[in-house]
């Protein structure tokens, strides 16, 4: 199962409010393999950014279909070795080792930003180079959620609904998700009477 829509709205905040994303910038989305990462890729591409993503082989196709420009298989290649030109924004959606998170700041050009969504590690920054480190936590924002819904309804933002599950199947669904076997959005429907 994927995070609730409020987390998708948070990704939009991460890119535009905190990251100040504009056309022509380079964005690294670390952990783009989930549906929320796919939203971030689509939103960044729509804004005219060059999007670099990290994903595993199992989510490569989903990430590519979201429209990234470059993909790094994080299971075989370190992100710091693969990113050869600085990025303006590094958005970290994946829980990574503290050293890996800290290394993201080295990929960001002076004046850029690292936005981190993992709550147990602070976002790294580099005051000397003017690289901001921002920690982002989920907050509900009805107006932003409404805008995202409008983008989905209008076909401008794709939501990958991969299955529908009855409410009675929720425990099994959670188990599959914990094992990494549930991909895309799952719509939970009332159980048949």
The CATH architecture designation of the largest domain is 3-Layer(aba) Sandwich
Give the spatial strand order of the biggest sheet: 3-2-1-4-5-6
Q: Which overall shape is indicated by the principal axes computed on the Cα atoms? A: globular
N to C succession of SSEs: HEHEHEHEHEEHEHE
Uncertain residue segments: 1-12
Radius of gyration: 17 Å
The name CATH uses for the topology of the largest domain is: Rossmann fold
Secondary structural class: alpha/beta
Number of domains: 2
Total strands = 8
Average of pLDDT: 82
* Helical content (DSSP H or I, runs of 4+): 25-40%
Report the span from N to C terminus.
24 Å
Q: What fraction of the residues are assigned to beta strands by DSSP?
A: 15-25%
Tell me about the largest β-sheet: 6 strands, parallel
Instruction: Assign the CATH superfamily of the largest domain.
Output: NAD(P)-binding Rossmann-like Domain
Which CATH class of the largest domain applies here? Alpha Beta
Number of helices: 7
Can you walk through the features of this model?
The protein has 193 residues and is of the alpha/beta class. It has two domains: 131 residues, NAD(P)-binding Rossmann-like Domain (Rossmann fold, 3-Layer(aba) Sandwich), CATH 3.40.50; 34 residues, no CATH class. It is built from seven helices and eight strands, in the order αβαβαβαβαββαβαβ. The strands form two sheets. It has a six-stranded parallel sheet, with helices on one face. The chain has a two-stranded parallel ribbon with strand order 7-8. Helix 1 packs parallel to helix 2 and helix 2 packs parallel to helix 3. The chain starts with a helix and ends with a strand.
